[in-house]
Structure formats: structure tokens, C-alpha cells
Amino acid sequence: MLLSQIRGMKVVSATDAVSLATVTGIVIDSAPAARVAAICLTKSSSLGPYLDWDAVQAVGHDAVIAHGAKTPHPGDERMTQLAALSHDLPGRRVLTDRGEPAGTVKDIAFDPETGLITRIHLTADDIPGDRLIAVGSYALMIRTG
Fold first, then answer.
1. Where is pLDDT greater, at 109 or 50?
2. Where do the structural domains in the chain lie, given as residue ranges?
3. Can you tell me the distance from the alpha carbon of 60 to that of 74, in angstroms, rounded to the nearest whole number?
4. What homologous superfamily is domain 3-86 in, according to CATH?
5. What is the mean predicted confidence (pLDDT) over 58-68?
6. Whole-model pTM?
7. pLDDT digits 0-9 by tens, 72-87
8. DSSP letters spanning 24-70
9. Residue 130 gets which letter from DSSP?
């Protein structure tokens, strides 16, 4: 699944198929392994801004299905920080752990079952997701290949 594909998808409850929100992005946590920690949601007076990845039952072609017992939460301080760093990933610079430019993020691929980042699509190249070290406000940092 690509970040560009999941954006705009509806989030529906697994128990009653009620629409809960719309996906606006993903939150990436790079420790201990690069993965989707949460899904960012549209602003709503009744729902929080994030859906924890462990509350995702499935990601389909046109909707994200959330466990019925779990609802989006307001987010803790760490989630808020990770979300701020994960905002607007396409177009973000990518640097190696040696400080060398590696390109610009075009899209991000992740496993829809586990949330693990599988590929980072750059404007000129693709790199394996397991090379992601950190997501910063200026750039993503990757291990030199």
C-alpha cells in the first residue's frame, strides 16, 4: 500500500460499518523498525486526530477498517511529535547517515497488514524501507546502502 493510495480513504468501524473519519496521512515511528504507528484522520469534534495502527483490522482498496471496540484517540505527546514530523512527507529531502543527499520523497510504501515501511520511493530511485533511520522536520535519514 502506498501513502498516496491511503490518503482520502474512509475509516469505517468493523462492527457496524459506520464511517468514522477520512485518512489524511500516516505517522511513522522509526524505532525499533520503520513502521506506520498510526493513521492521521480528518478533524472531527467527536474523534481524535489519530487511529493507532494496532486498531486497524484491515486496509482495503477503498477503506480502512478499524476494530469496533477501538476508536481514534487524542494522541499522547510522543504521537503528537511523530505526527508533526510525518506531516507532508512527499517532497521531503532524504539524507544518508553520512549527510549526503539521497533524493526527495515521492511516495512511501508499507505493508497493509503489519504497517512496516517496505519502500521509500524517491524522485530518482527507490530504497528499502528498512534503511530508514529517522524522520525529521527537514529530512528523512537513511542508512547508507
1. 109
2. 3-86, 93-142
3. 24
4. PRC-barrel domain (2.30.30.240)
5. 90
6. 0.91
7. 566 688 889 999 999 9
8. EEEEEE-SSS-EEEEEEE---SSS-SEEEGGGEEEE-SSEEEEPTT-
9. G
